[in-house]
Amino acid sequence: MKPLFRSLGVIAVFSALILSQGCATILGGRTNKLVFTGSNDVQAQVFIDDTLRGEAYGEIVLNSRIIQHGSMLEIRADGYPTQEYLILRKPHAGYIIADFAVGGIPLIFDMATGHLLRPVPRKFEVDFTKQD
């Protein structure tokens, strides 16, 4: 009888661990990727809330905690006007659906950790043309 209770205990602990991980935490990870496209004739840098985060062309992968709701992203290049974007964090619909598909409980953990929220926009067109 004791082996049965031990097996049930192991199954209960394993189930609790599985349910405590939301789909956004597992699938989305703890990073956000920002994509910058455009002609790379001009060297430009990306600043988020006045902190340099990388070069403007290609992809920048950031910890999910760096971008907050209402963060200001700036693309700066010498001799050109600064491009500014307001970044908002919004729930990712795919992760919400996946959390409900596995019972709904993981949604609580995804919301509590903030992994359910993704930055919007995440793709930026970099355009530095001389203004006359």
Short description:
The chain is of the alpha+beta class. The chain has four helices and eight strands, in the order H-H-E-E-E-E-E-E-H-H-E-E.
Structural class: alpha+beta
What percentage of residues falls in helices of 4 or more residues? Answer: 25-40%
Percent of residues in β-strands: 25-35%
Report how far the terminal alpha carbons are from each other. Answer: 85 Å
**Structurally, how many domains make up the residues?**
1
Notes on the protein architecture:
The chain is α+β, with helices and mostly antiparallel strands and 132 residues long. Helices cover 32% and strands 33% of the residues. It has one domain (2-125). It has 4 helices and 8 strands; from the N terminus they run H-H-E-E-E-E-E-E-H-H-E-E. The strands form 2 sheets. A 5-stranded antiparallel β-sheet has the order 3-2-5-6-7. The longest helix is centred in the first third of the chain and has 18 residues, at 2-19. It is elongated and about 80 Å long. 19% of the residues are buried.
